[in-house]
Amino acid sequence: MTVQELPGAAADYRPTPPPAWQPRTDPAPLLPDPEPLRVLGTDAAASADSGLLLRLYAQLVRGRRYNTQATALTKQGRLAVYPSSTGQEACEIAAAMVLEEHDWLFPSYRDTLAAVARGLDPVEALTLLRGDWHTGYDPREHRIAPLCTPLATQLPHAVGLAHAARLRGDDVVALAMVGDGGTSEGDFHEALNFAAVWQAPVVFLVQNNGFAISVPLAKQTAAPSLAHKAVGYGMPGRLVDGNDAAAVHQVLGEAVERARRGGGPTLVEAVTYRVDAHTNADDATRYRGEQEVEVWRAHDPIMLLERELTARGLLDEESRRTATEEAEAMAADLRERMNADPVLDPMDLFAHVYTEQTGQLREQAAQLRAELDAAAEAEGEAR
Ligand SMILES: Cc1ncc(C[n+]2csc(CCOP(=O)(O)OP(=O)(O)O)c2C)c(N)n1
Ligand SMILES: [Mg+2]
């Protein structure tokens, strides 16, 4: 294609150079470190609190078991779909643990573990994924927004809530979770911009697990790292090893404290890996090799913690067994309760959608009501 030049353009155009442009703030302190922060297996681990490491360990073991149990339930037809976070447990658990009870968590569909670690009933956390109805839990009870399926839409919600809380003088930090793919959504950019302009008390946690379904990170972005995106909005970007539970806990803890003190938002990129397929409905062998997965298995979050705890003499056979038994008890309870058929009213589908029902939804509700009544009548006549 040839670009047509306007007559007289280029050659005659000799503008006065504009005044030198200066950055309004120094970008250097906002830049992420070149390497993700690691604690486990480094000198920094010596100063990590042993009680915290043991709590993280118990929760990670429990989280892994939750993932395998929920995946098994999909195979048994008890759960429609489950996006496993196996391999990402350190991010999930640390995110829940750095928050106070009065803070808010804004999870994505993959973040069931974070919601459960924050106190949500393990069965209620699966209501949506079972296809029962809507969110399935009361978001206000534990201050956990709905597990969000539309990518990144939870982020502007988190910013709005955090900003509103600050205007009211409430001590609330919002932690919003999103995937690497979600960073390409407009909502991600709008949320970051508003958060930085308003200095809202928000922490954005990007779990870079390498893929958005089959799309690898290299096809998602050309940025030096996802954490670098923070700089363009005027907030600090932090890069952390997402499989190192102590490091994720430290970085998120610092970001939450900063937000609480009025220091504004932070973007944290946790570099991790989705070991399982996108969901039970996906076949990951079609877009990645087993070798790649093996490399990440050798950097497993539970294994990294076990190594550290064992080296420090904090984890013996008995405490390991206790953690496993507790996780098994949780899985058994989850199995039992998920195997009971839920009592559902299909009309609930129309409740809690809008304060004032739209005309279209009213029509659909009437249609469903008529179908249900006809079915009940036919069943009555057949008896
Ligand atoms: C707005 C929107 N577009 C597309 C989809 C379909 N979709 C569901 S998950 C997914 C990939 C998201 O990848 P990522 O953000 O990296 O999260 P991950 O699944 O890896 O946790 C896509 C494209 C969606 N849910 N919402
Ligand atoms: Mg991803």
Automatic annotation (TrEMBL):
<dbReference type="InterPro" id="IPR001017">
    <property type="entry name" value="DH_E1"/>
</dbReference>
<feature type="domain" description="Dehydrogenase E1 component">
    <location>
        <begin position="69"/>
        <end position="345"/>
    </location>
</feature>
<dbReference type="InterPro" id="IPR017596">
    <property type="entry name" value="PdhA/BkdA"/>
</dbReference>
<keyword id="KW-0560">Oxidoreductase</keyword>
<dbReference type="InterPro" id="IPR050771">
    <property type="entry name" value="Alpha-ketoacid_DH_E1_comp"/>
</dbReference>
<keyword id="KW-0670">Pyruvate</keyword>
<feature type="region of interest" description="Disordered">
    <location>
        <begin position="1"/>
        <end position="33"/>
    </location>
</feature>
<dbReference type="Pfam" id="PF00676">
    <property type="entry name" value="E1_dh"/>
</dbReference>
<keyword id="KW-0786">Thiamine pyrophosphate</keyword>
<protein>
    <submittedName>
        <fullName>Pyruvate dehydrogenase (Acetyl-transferring) E1 component subunit alpha</fullName>
    </submittedName>
</protein>
<dbReference type="InterPro" id="IPR029061">
    <property type="entry name" value="THDP-binding"/>
</dbReference>
